[in-house]
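Q: I'm building a small set of examples for a reading group on sequence design. Run inverse folding on the following structure and report the sequence directly after it, with nothing in between.
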């Protein structure tokens, strides 16, 4: 519509050199004797692409659906934006559930698993698992006001674990990291060599590889649930990235398709009139390809 208005306003200027025609009448200004048709240049304007695929892709890489909206592909815009919102909700919900589950299992471990109990068992039975144990026992503080993880000399505990692990059949395959390392909470509910630290374990038993503490099993399942929740959140995070990339590619195609689907051509069309005059009528043609 703007293009036609521009053409209408510019035509009197193009034809103003004709002295025999009255001025101030737009329609008369658009008329020439038929003999003068060949002297007037044809005006033709073809529509150029109005949507930038690169800009559309940039919009969608930041916010999925924004590029499609720019390209006037509204249903696809809503689909990508809705997917983005849904994935962020899933991520936030399951990451939050994983955090709460982590707090729960760590609190459970601090309440029912003791590195002091584990260290005492190692000192008592270590020699039976591997002769010639380290010359120094594990130093354990008797201060009841300290939490268990601050009462044990960790370097000596790891040395004993290393010594017992020198015999493959003992099953002492790992060395316990200090609390609150994430591996600390993982190992005590993953490997049977830490069975003995749970308070429902009989400290006199040596066959720790033959059975599992009930609380060990319960704690293992608590950690498993936390890992499952984090896995769902992590998958949602991957899908968020994929949604951004797919939306960017789709937005570029949508913008390109928009430019190809609508073609507008405006021109002055010569139309014969009475008395051997020709009127140049502004016309527009609209082509839509599917």
């Amino acid at each position: 519509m703007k293009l036609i208005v521009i053409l209408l306003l510019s035509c009197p200027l193009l034809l103003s050199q004709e002295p025999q025609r009255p001025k101030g009448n737009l329609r008369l200004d658009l008329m020439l004797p038929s003999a003068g048709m060949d002297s007037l240049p044809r005006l033709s304007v073809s529509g150029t692409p109005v949507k930038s695929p690169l800009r559309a892709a940039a919009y969608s890489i930041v916010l999925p659906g924004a590029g499609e909206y720019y390209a006037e592909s509204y249903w696809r815009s809503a689909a990508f934006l809705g997917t983005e919102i849904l994935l962020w909700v899933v991520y936030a919900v399951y990451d939050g559930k994983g955090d709460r589950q982590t707090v729960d299992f760590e609190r459970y471990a601090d309440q029912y698993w003791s590195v002091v109990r584990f260290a005492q068992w190692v000192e008592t039975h270590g020699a039976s698992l591997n002769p010639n144990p380290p010359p120094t026992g594990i130093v354990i503080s008797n201060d009841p006001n300290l939490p268990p993880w601050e009462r044990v000399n960790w370097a000596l505990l790891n040395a004993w674990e290393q010594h017992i692990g020198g015999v493959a059949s003992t099953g002492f395959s790992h060395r316990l990291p200090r609390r609150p390392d994430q591996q600390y909470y993982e190992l005590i509910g993953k490997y049977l060599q830490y069975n003995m630290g749970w308070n429902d374990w009989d400290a006199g038993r040596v066959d720790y590889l033959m059975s599992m503490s009930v609380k060990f099993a319960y704690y293992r399942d608590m950690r498993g649930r936390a890992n499952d929740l984090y896995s769902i959140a992590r998958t949602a995070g991957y899908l968020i990235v994929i949604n951004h990339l797919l939306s960017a590619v789709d937005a570029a195609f949508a913008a390109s398709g928009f430019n190809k689907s609508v073609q507008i051509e405006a021109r002055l069309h010569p139309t014969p009139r009475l008395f051997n005059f020709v009127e140049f009528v502004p016309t527009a043609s609209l082509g839509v390809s599917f």
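Residues 65 and 77 are 4 Å apart (CA to CA).
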